Amino acid sequence: MPDTLPDPSTVLPVLPAPSAQAERLIELGVHEIAGLSADEVRAVAAGAEDGALLAVHPDRAPASALAPLLRREGKPGFVVVDMPDVDGFTPCGVELPDAPLYALMGVDRGDRMADWSPAEALPALTGEGRSPLVLTEGIHWLLQQPEALERNRCFMTIGSRLRKADGTLDARTPAIWISNGTGRDGRERRNAPKVGWCWWNNRHTWLGFASATHRGA
């Protein structure tokens, strides 16, 4: 890993109250994707601490269904065309609560690890007692706090990995950033939120590593 640690992550505004997050999920129809009633979502929110992020379990609401709900400058989010297997990126080395809807605490964008590779960041995060976010958790964060995605301040979600048929892990790792509207993205998608992938051993100066301190049902 790099010899010196970059500056601590940028301090972002406090997340909306869990009750407000619940209403946002209901407004977007996430509860219907997950097969939950509005009252069930509100009940989970009522038991969550301030500062928590609500997230639907990826088994109930996959990334392919959530990404189009993202918005930036009025443009919907999307999954890159060369990631048709996005929903195959499942939790790896991360234990999610056995609940359809749960809360995460201490969510951080990991700016200080910009220009680290996933291979370098993972042991550093776990050594600090932090858990990398899975892809759907990263999307949920941006549904509630779109401003957490900034140019040159985007993030990977290395808690999700794709396991190949032979049991080995695919070298791609999911990330969420902002489209430049180039290549196969299309000019109409410039500045839209983009779910894509990076290589496990590659570094990117504009990607941190999103993580949380703990999760609970």
Please specify the SSE layout and strand pairing.
Elements: H1 18-28, H2 30-33, H3 38-46, E1 53-56, H4 63-66, E2 71-72, E3 75-76, E4 78-79, E5 89-91, E6 101-105, H5 118-127, E7 131-132, H6 135-144, E8 154-156, E9 160-162, E10 172-178, E11 193-199, E12 207-209, E13 211-212, E14 214-216
Parallel strand pairs: 4-11, 8-12
Antiparallel strand pairs: 1-6, 2-3, 5-9, 6-14, 7-13, 8-10, 10-11
- Helical content (DSSP H or I, runs of 4+): 10-25%
Principal-axis shape equals: globular
N-C termini distance: 34 Å
List how many beta strands DSSP finds: 14
The biggest beta sheet reads: 5 strands, mixed
Gyration radius (Cα, Å) is 16 Å
**DSSP helical segment count:** 6
Average pLDDT over all residues: 94
The secondary-structure element order is HHHEHEEEEEHEHEEEEEEE
- How do the strands line up in the largest sheet? 4-11-10-8-12
Structural class: alpha+beta
Low-confidence stretches: 1-8
Strand fraction = 15-25%
Concise synopsis of the structure shown:
By secondary structure, the chain is α+β, with helices and mostly antiparallel strands. 22% of the residues lie in helices and 22% in strands. The protein is built from six helices and 14 strands.
